[in-house]
Structures are given as C-alpha cells and as structure tokens.
Amino acid sequence: MPHRYVKAIVQIRSGPYTRDGYGVSIMNGDPAAEPKLIRTAVDQAVNEAFIDAIDTYEMGWKDLAPYKLEDWAGNPALAHLQQSGPPAGVEDGAAPIQSFAVSNHKCLKCKENLTNAEWELLGRIPNLNRESLVYCFEHILAHLKRKLPEPVLTDFEEKRNS
Ligand SMILES: [Zn+2]
C-alpha cells in the first residue's frame, strides 16, 4: 500500500497442466483517503493476471488470428497453429482413449513408434525440439525427463499404468 500498487499472481489448472499469470495495477490517489481505490486496483490486477495466465494456453488465438493478420497473427508460429490446430490431447475431452494409439514418430534409440501420449509428453519438455530429439518414454534422456513438470509426468504415468 505505501507504494500504491497491487500485484496479483494467479495459478490456473487445466487437467495436469498449471499456468501462472500476474497482473499489476497502480492506484492514482490516496487509498487511505479513498479505500474504494484498493478494491478497484485489486480487481484490475486479478483480471490482468487471469488474462496473462490464460494467454499462455493460447486460448482464442486461433479464432482471433484471421482478424489480426496485419498485427500479431502474421508470425509463422501462429500461421502453423491455424493450419494444424492445437496438438492432440490439448482439446477438451480428447486423448484418454486415443492417447496410447501409435503415432508416426519413431524413437531414435529403439526405432519403435511412439504412442501419441509419448509424443505429447516430449512436447511438454521445455525448449526441446521434439522434431529432432524423438524418444519413447523408456529412452527419453534422463536430463530431459527431469525437466518435465511433475504433474505432467505423474499424469502420464498414471494413464500408462491404468
Ligand atoms: Zn525407444
């Protein structure tokens, strides 16, 4: 309060995935004299935090892209998203039944085809280029496997063992 700003941090969870978002709101005025300012600032900061978190899921990007071609939608990653859609398993209710079906990606080590779930799991390793480092679950290099967020790994293993 002495600095007259509010910072909100939220975490949203969708299935095994969580995302953080933050928002900041500055109070133009004296909150001691005008307590309403606090409530407004908190509301704004929280709203901004949710938008920030949801944006990391790229929600709505595909729908908005056709209207923003001159703007942010011009980038190649988004053009790719428009043509191919989100990866399998990300949409609501997709996956459980199909996730252990075989994909057309071969493990570099054992040459077996990955399941869709294994392919998706590779996609969850931060900064991994899964087009070049293709491994089935058994053969994912240990240092890469350690980078997987715990809930993602747990979810994968639960499905795998069920
Ligand atoms: Zn393998």
Portion in helices: 25-40%
Number of helices: 6
Identify low-pLDDT runs: 93-97
Structural class: alpha+beta
Main pleated-sheet profile:
2 strands, antiparallel
Beta fraction of the residues?
15-25%
* Ions, cofactors and other bound molecules: zinc ion
Nearest-angstrom radius of gyration?
Answer: 21 Å
Gross geometry:
elongated
Order of strands, main sheet, comes to 1-2
Tally the beta strands: 4
- Provide the number of structural domains: 3
Reading the helices and strands in chain order gives EEHHHEEHHH
How far apart are the first and last residues' alpha carbons, in Å? 51 Å
- Please state the average pLDDT score: 83
Description:
Helix content is 35%, strand content 17%. It has helices at 36-55, 61-64, 76-84, 116-123, 142-145, 150-161; strands at 5-14, 17-26, 102-106, 113-115. The chain has 3 domains: 5-55, no CATH class; 58-86, no CATH class; 87-161, no CATH class. The strands form 2 sheets. A two-stranded antiparallel sheet has the order 1-2. The longest helix has 20 residues, at 36-55. Residues 93-97 have low confidence and may be disordered. With 162 residues, it is an alpha+beta fold. Bound molecules: zinc ion. Zinc ion binds at residues 107, 109-110, 112, 135-136, 138-139.
Layout: helices, strands, pairs:
Elements lengths: L4 E10 L2 E10 L9 H20 L5 H4 L11 H9 L17 E5 L6 E3 H8 L18 H4 L4 H12 L1
Antiparallel strand pairs: 1-2, 3-4
Bound molecules: zinc ion (ZN).
Could you name the key traits of this structure?
3 domains, two-stranded antiparallel sheet, 4 strands, binds zinc ion
